[in-house]
Specification:
about 325 residues, alpha/beta
C-alpha cells in the first residue's frame, strides 16, 4: 500500500513537471476549424504573437461538408491568457523554424472585446496570407538582392572590394595605423597634447589664478595694502566719508546759485540777445544796406580820384599853372 502511494506521488510529480506546472491551472476552451490536420496533434502548442498560452487538447473530424472546416481542434487556453485574445483575432497553422513542428499561431486583433470561452476563433489559411503579399514587389526585391550578391562575388562596389580583394583591407589597415601613430604622438611627452596630459602645467595654469586671488584676499584681510588699511583703519573710511560730504555740499551750493534756482539771468540774457538782434536788423534795413546809392557814389568818387592821380602822374604841369595878376 505504501509503495503504491509513493509510486502515485512520484507519478504526480512527474506529470506536474512534464506539464510545466500548468496541470492545475484553470483553462478555457476555444475551437478552431481547419482544412487538414497535417502535423497537428494533441499537445501541440498554441501561441499568441509567439507567446505560449495553451495547447491543443483534441484533434478530430468535424463532420462538416465544407472543405475548410474538415478538422476541429479543441484548444485549451489558460484562463488568465484569455484577456490577450481579442474577439477578432485569427489563427493559422505555422511551422517551427528549426524543428519543423506544427503549432497554432494566433494573431491578435484590434477589437477591445475579448473572445469568450467556448467560442470559435477564425481560421486564416496560408493562401489568404499570401494574397496580402505584393508578388511583383517581392520579385523585384529578390532580383535586387541577387544583383547585390553578384556584385559582391565579382568584387564590385565597396563591399565587394572588401570581401574579394585586399586593397580595401590594406587601406583600412593603413588608416588605422596612421590613427594609432597620430594618437601615440599626441599622447607623447614631446607633443602639446601629451605635455598637457602627462605634466601638471595645465593644472598649475588653472590653479595659480585662484592661489593669487586667495593670497590677495588674505593680505586685504590682514590689513596690508590700501584696500586692507581701508577695511582695518577707521580713519581712512572717515576721510573718504568727509570728502564725500564736502563734495555733496559743493554740489548743493552750486545748485543754490541764482543760475539754477531762478530764470531771471536766463531771461536777461535772452532780452539782451533779442535787443542785439533787433539792432542788427535795423542796420541791415538802413539806407546803406537797403539800396546801392551810397555804394555807387563811393565807387564813382574812387574812380574819379584814380583818374585824377593817373593824369597828375602823366602830366603834372597841367595842375601846376600860375596866373599873373
Amino acid at each position: 500500500m505504501v509503495i503504491a502511494v509513493a509510486a502515485a506521488a512520484i507519478l504526480g510529480v512527474l506529470v506536474y513537471l512534464l506539464t510545466g506546472g500548468t496541470i492545475f491551472v484553470e483553462k478555457a476552451t476555444l475551437y478552431l476549424y481547419i482544412p487538414d490536420a497535417t502535423g497537428i496533434e494533441a499537445g501541440s502548442a498554441v501561441r499568441v504573437n509567439g507567446i505560449g498560452v495553451g495547447k491543443v487538447d483534441r484533434v478530430a473530424l468535424s463532420g462538416s461538408d465544407q472543405l475548410d472546416r474538415t478538422i476541429r481542434l479543441v484548444l485549451k487556453i489558460e484562463r488568465e491568457n484569455m484577456r490577450d485574445i481579442p474577439a477578432d483575432s485569427t489563427a493559422q497553422i505555422s511551422t517551427e523554424g528549426v524543428t519543423g513542428d506544427k503549432y497554432v499561431d494566433v494573431t491578435q486583433g484590434t477589437n477591445p472585446a475579448r473572445i469568450p470561452a467556448g467560442a470559435e476563433i477564425t481560421y486564416r489559411s496560408a493562401p489568404e496570407l499570401l494574397k496580402t503579399i505584393d508578388v511583383q514587389q517581392f520579385t523585384k526585391q529578390l532580383r535586387l538582392a541577387d544583383a547585390t550578391l553578384t556584385n559582391i562575388e565579382q568584387g564590385r562596389g565597396f563591399v565587394g572590394q572588401f570581401v574579394i580583394g585586399t586593397e580595401m583591407y590594406d587601406q583600412t589597415r593603413k588608416a588605422l595605423q596612421d590613427i594609432e601613430r597620430e594618437f601615440r604622438q599626441g599622447v607623447s611627452v614631446t607633443g602639446s597634447a601629451g605635455h598637457i596630459l602627462r605634466t601638471d602645467e595645465l593644472y598649475r595654469q588653472m590653479r595659480d589664478p585662484f592661489v593669487n586671488l586667495d593670497q590677495k584676499l588674505e593680505r586685504i584681510q590682514s590689513g596690508q595694502g590700501p584696500m586692507g588699511q581701508l577695511l582695518r583703519d577707521d580713519k581712512k573710511y572717515a576721510q573718504l566719508q568727509d570728502q564725500a560730504g564736502r563734495l555733496r555740499k559743493s554740489i548743493a551750493d552750486l545748485r543754490a546759485q541764482p543760475l539754477f534756482t531762478s530764470d531771471q539771468l536766463y531771461v536777461s540774457w535772452t532780452g539782451e540777445i533779442a535787443s542785439l538782434a533787433g539792432r542788427v536788423d535795423q542796420i541791415n534795413s538802413g539806407p546803406m544796406f537797403s539800396n546801392s546809392m551810397i555804394y555807387d557814389n563811393v565807387n564813382g568818387f574812387l574812380h574819379e580820384m584814380r583818374t585824377t592821380i593817373h593824369e597828375f602822374r602823366t602830366d603834372p604841369q597841367k595842375f601846376l599853372r600860375f596866373g599873373m595878376f
